[in-house]
Design brief:
Mean pLDDT: 96
CATH architecture: 3-Layer(aba) Sandwich
Strand content: 25-35%
CATH class: Alpha Beta
Helix content: 25-40%
Number of helices: 7
Structural class: alpha/beta
Low-confidence stretches: none
Largest sheet: 5 strands, mixed, barrel
CATH superfamily: Nucleoside phosphorylase domain
Amino acid sequence: MNHFPPSELILNPDGSIYHLQLLPGQIADTILTVGDPARVELISSRFDAVECRVHKREFITHTGRIGTKRLTVISTGIGPDNIDIVINELDALVNIDLANRVPKLQHTALTFVRVGTSGAIQPHLEVGNFIVSAYGIGLDNLMHFYEWHHLPHEANMQQALDTFLQNSGPLPVQPYVFAADINLVESLRSSMPPGITLTSPGFYAPQGRTLRGKTRLQPQDIDRLSHFECQSLQITNFEMETAALLGLSRTLGHKAVSCNVLLANRTRHTFVEHAGAAVSRLIDEVLAWVEGV
């Protein structure tokens, strides 16, 4: 059995996991992830009871319940690098015996639900609307550092994307593809149409924005990506966590899905008038759904 030395599995003096400062038992099996630390309080204020509040760095965790459903909401901060920290440490809390530094014999599968904001790249998508990410396409490099194998429908999507890019022109990076949990996507379909989400490692040049630093991802690149279609799905939106969340969760044996409210439409150069209200509507929609997960 593997033994994890202190240099690899880092614990705080109280036995909590290093970055999140959480102890086993302080998280639920269903975990909502948000980028913005302030969004944790927005969500937990809707709980019927909060049993645990932990804050370290950008990672804020509240665990409580709605009715009989136990939930955790945690802020990841922005970007796939933070997803690497959060998902690995949450997995360790349930699947590693921290006291003895060995894997547990019985695996616990968590359910991760991202509650996030995003920008549309399809002209017909209105700001303020919701999208559930059936797939994430990673324009970051996180999952290139892990060993994993595609599921058949992921391999089909990856092959279609690779062929599309060979014909239309390459991107600055080699993209990877991961699918969300099919059952979670299907249960959300009635309130959130499914799409394919691009995950970038940054907000500006990696999403085709130019302020003073010029981007290599030109408007025509975004336009051609908007024409990719596979399995009756189009690339619908840009954000910064989804592909990493879907990929790392499945690699570790968990379920994950990403729910997005569209704050901007990149092709129409529009931004939602009341971003806070749009995020609140998404929170209410996800919490109403998640009680049945």
